[in-house]
Amino acid sequence: MNERDLTPDESNKIKVRLAARTLLVFITLCFLLVTCAGANSTMELKVGVYPNEPLISQDQNGTAIGLYAEILESVASKEGWDLNYVPGTLEQCYQMLDNDSIDIIPAVPYIQTEQHYILTSEAPYTDWGIVYTYKGSGISSMNDLSGKRIAHVNDIFYENFNASPGNSNISYSFISAGSYIEIFELLENKETDAGIVSRSYGEVYENQFDLEKIPFVISPTDMVFALSENTDPEIAKQIDADIALMIRENGTIHYMQENIDTSKNEESLSTWESPSWLKFSVGIGGGLLLIFVILSITLKNKVEEKTYELNSKNRELEVEIRERKIVEEKLKQYSLELKDSNELKDLFTDILRHDLINPATVIKGYVEFLIEVENEPRKKEAMEAIERNNNKLIELIENAAHLAKLDNMDDMTFETLDLKEIIEEVINHLMPKFEEKNMTINFNPSGNYPADVNTTIEDVFSNLISNAIKYSPSGTSINIDIKDIDDTWEITISDEGEGIPDKDKPFVFDRFKRVHKVNIKGTGLGLAIVKRIVDLHEGSVEVFDRTDREGTTFKVTLQKTKV
């Protein structure tokens, strides 16, 4: 039958059906295109960047650099975010955050009173203010600053220093500078007597100038990310979750867990089954268009991926070059100071024992008193934050002084002591911590275990048992055993924690080496102290996984009393 054999009604019906099918094919193509475009869309976040080198800043090309830029780039890559950096001063960034012009500011102080921002809880870095002066200035303590010129930038360290009640009766002459590097230049030219600089900046650039530090710490502050109150709170939670899985080694951010289960996503994928006539129509009329769209999207994603990889490599190379220059400068400085190293160690230890621990202890006493008498919740919360950071500072000072003293010792005096009695005394001292986590301790010695040891051996067992408590879940047990092996005693301390990865075990006794997650509390000196004390006893300390269950075992080997 040809078109001439059709009646007008039949011809009209055929035209309507053809038009309907053509419209359906067009709608289907539009739906597929929208679906493909939506599947590849990403969340765009505007990030404020202000000069706070080396934590966050921009290079000459306008690229965000620094520790916090690396962390945020790593999180964004993992979560599929598109970051758009907006430069400005810190004050301008806060203003943009208030009016929702940006979503995030990296590397800002954790100030709990500013509740109109969303602050992340994970702190990759703790910063504080340091006071510098030029060599030969005659300034060696805070009391010497009375009537002196002090250079500063408008940061939290200057604000807290200026607002300190202890400084209200001391006259200072403040000089406002535009940057930390300008402060160092003013000091080198003796155009100011002292300057307040952040610890993070000073550690990188102080060796480029002939300056001295005053043993004084200003406002230790956790540096976090601030988000607009209108930003999705889940973004802050995701940043915290990703930071908790990060580790920073050799200037590069890594994730400690790379295995991601994608089976659920694969199971959730479904296919759309169309009628046979529509498949034929799409294949003939829209196949070439779909292929072109898919290839375009694929190529676009590949280009973006390769561009991101190249930018990441460039940033890594810039960081590596900068760090190598810093290392070279430090090596030159160390070679000049090597002859006087023992004298400098003694001086540093004395400063830790006296000039640092005394004011920190005074702060502790006053803060404890103020917490007891303060009734206003916001002020009490701020004081508790001061107390918490001050306690961390005291612990760091005490451990550093202890380790410095041990490093200067070549030998020590020994006496015959019973290891059983030493361990039992440590357990009794730590019993409140056991009860707090509802944990049990299994230590059933039989007989006596005499060994020629120094009283510092108690610090070894105190550190190891405290760590076992800290890294074990509530309600678990800690097992302690002493074995008689030839001429030695082998003491093992086993916990039921998550264990230590094999790649990290060789480094657990290195000082300041953080082989755990970035949010683990501690000074990074405890196991270094353990290793040094055991070495002075001509013993050994090892770490390995438990064989009977998940957990970690530390083994200390000590010589028996010589008959």
Q: So how many helices?
A: 14
CATH architecture assignment of the domain at 415-559 = 2-Layer Sandwich
Total strands: the figure is 20
Quick one: CATH superfamily of the domain at 415-559?
Answer: Histidine kinase-like ATPase, C-terminal domain
CATH fold naming of the domain at 415-559: Heat Shock Protein 90
Could you say which structural class the secondary elements and strand pairing correspond to? alpha+beta
Helix content: 40-55%
Largest sheet: 7 strands, mixed
How far from one another are the termini?
A: 119 Å
Strand-residue fraction? 15-25%
CATH top level assignment of the domain at 415-559: Alpha Beta
Average pLDDT for all residues = 79
Tell me the Rg in angstroms: 32 Å
Shape: globular
The residue ranges in which pLDDT falls below 50 over 5 or more consecutive positions are 33-40, 257-273, 517-522
